[in-house]
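User: Hey, quick favor. My workstation is busy. Could you predict this chain's structure for me?
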Amino acid sequence: MVGYHGFEDGILKLKQVTRCDHHAIQCYIIGVISGAVPRRFLIVVHALVNFCYLAQAPIFTDHSLDRLTNALQLFHDNKDTVMQAGVQDTWEIPKLKLLQSVVSNIQCSGPVIQWSADTTKHAHIQEVKVPAQLSNNQNYYDQIAHYLDCSDKCFHFDVATYFETCHEGNPSEDDDDLEEEHDIELDFNNCSLCDHMNLPHLPLNYFVIANALACDSIPNAPKPHRTFSNITTTFHLVTKPSLCMTIDDAAILFKLPDLHPVIGEFLQCAQNHLNHPVSGVTSQDLHYPLPFDHIQIWYKIHIQQFLYHKAQDIDALQTLRVLPPSGDHPHGIYDMVILSPGPDSDWPQQGIEGHVVAQLRLIFCLLDTDYFTTYVQCFDVIMQLGNSGNVHPITGMHLLRRAMKSSAERLGSVVPISHICSPIHLIPKFDKEAHSHLTRESSCEFSNDFWLNNYWSKELYHTLSPLRL
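Assistant: No problem, here it is.
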């Protein structure tokens, strides 16, 4: 999972700001500047970012268009505070004027995102920039035109040979020998022209793989199966674990002193067919005897979900990392997730309501069992009086605090991996000024208060929005 985007010299010294830089700043700016700028200044930035995210939705309703209009109006109502702060001298900016026509254009022509330039930009890279890198930088236009001409001829040749093969209907004797050698069934009647063309890459559907494994349609697959799913999410672990060690050694490596008793607590709940609550309260003794003393550990887990607006389509695969402290990462890398209290969840329909925010600290499998589990440390949502959904009224984000025991230790529990609903991203609450000793690697480890970053991705934004579409 992607973490922070680093600007070594700060963002004020950026000279050639690309779309990627704008995107990175947009994902973090509200959480980072909250507390450091006046209230109305933050409202201006918040409104403009909301407008950008709402305008890029693939589906619109009357309600979502009203939200889009209100976001732009909120920006105009408070933009004078930016000029008063001396940040902006004038609002005579052509792109800002174009925002006035976004809602009317959506009503007439449909979602703006369908007019994305990503396709033509990708074509320009593949057909112009990549070939240009292979040239001698002489007669640029002639060489690109010659390359496109050759590429077009090769494409038509491939199409012609494909149709000729289909017309013959049967493979040749050489093809028969090749088929017997590799034990491949060649079905020429079901071949498609699309198989011979360069089409956009579609993500591999791990839901289909998980379903096939659950139905024992892949008899030679290693057990316990490394690919499995719940209602909304599929999980995939590589066959070979990253480590295999004793529980005590794992507790030392990952700095989890209560790992032994919380595993015992989890096993007791599993044997009684009870959902293990993410409470951190353990009734087991520190040296409670377990039926095993070794565990298999993974540093990564891949997850896949359905899209928020198109529930029948799958999203790209995402990776969650859980790395122990090392020379390259002295504080380790521990990604954040949304957890459901049980195996069944209504995520993402109800957003964060009824779910738990947690940090993955260990991904492991109990030897000689089919329990794929994770040790997590939890966060509490700080109540926001008078605001539905406990959302902060200015930032539009949930404010979180690390859950602690009475002994001032972090609250942790072991839960099945299948309880993970979604990866998320947290931004430390820096207030007016961040501590000078905090770095990109250490800020999450040494902070206690965090913003649940709605703006990390478009999918997460629409899921956690207090007024969902």
